[in-house]
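Case study 2.
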Amino acid sequence: MEKFKAFLKRKDIVVSWKRYGLEALSAMAQGLFCSLLIGTIIKTVGTQCGIEWLAEMGGFAMAMSGPAMAVAIGYALHSPNLVLFSLAAVGYAANSLGGAGGPLAVLFIAIIAAEVGKMVSKETKVDMIVTPLVTIFVGVGVAYLIAPPIGAGASWLGNLIMWATELRPFLMGVIVSAIVGIFLTLPISSAAICAALSLTGLAGGAAVAGCCAQMVGFAVMSFRENKWGGLISQGIGTSMLQMPNILRNGRIWIPPILASMITGPIATCVFKLQMNGAAINSGMGTCGLCGPIGVITGWLEPSEAAAAAGAVAISPTGFDWLGLVLICIVLPGVLTWIFGNVARKIGWIKAGDLNLE
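Prediction:
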């Protein structure tokens, strides 16, 4: 056992929640962002502007989401070059065979393939052949075995959440908005989770509301401490910047969470806000304005997942646009500012508690 532990240490294989649940998942989200998400934006711009080559470019980026996610995961796991490059094929297979749960399948399978590949890396004199062969053989083999069930399970869970939101829009609006918003600020990937569950429709709209409440909320609430730099870095960057402050004083998290619990049901019950663009947008909030862009994309051209759930293209009305602006920008800022001021007055939030380091 001691020899095996020493071997794992030498190979930099660390079996932990931090390595797999935080670092690998966060890296996967970046890979997803740099392929599916940015490709969706490019394709939307190209399609709406009638620029065929731009729409085609976006399609190329979207098609590479599986390889991009797998390589990103391998990078987070400190994979040697031959393992890292071999993961492109593994990611393509896992994402393709995983269907609606492709990103979740890629997460599990890329981790397995990367760690096995690391075990054999540089252990033979024919490393150039052995390492890619083992990495691809194990990864694609495992993909054939578990990717379809993972996809079916993720699809079932995502459909359950969406069905429950349709059935109980107020209650689920509160729950989905609050939980996904919390995931967005935690050092895990709300975007990857939403993509893995293929979360669209009303549930996706509630998720957008929760994420925007966190990002815009923290940006506005901390403006007196962080000024314009903080407003931009949190408002269109990430509210994760506040995690060190949350660990020091968890009560600073209460205002944006309360805001999300209000904007979520307003999104589902009043404006019927739906995310019918790429599911990853449901967990992005105002990061690069991806949440609102996803909603707009879904209005004009629903994603495959949304279309499969019955979504159709619409011509947005003034009421739709009003709802989008209120849910994503105005209400998160106003509500969190109000709750934040109350928290300051009762001493829950003190000067310096929201300073970004």
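DSSP finds 16 helices and no strands in the chain.
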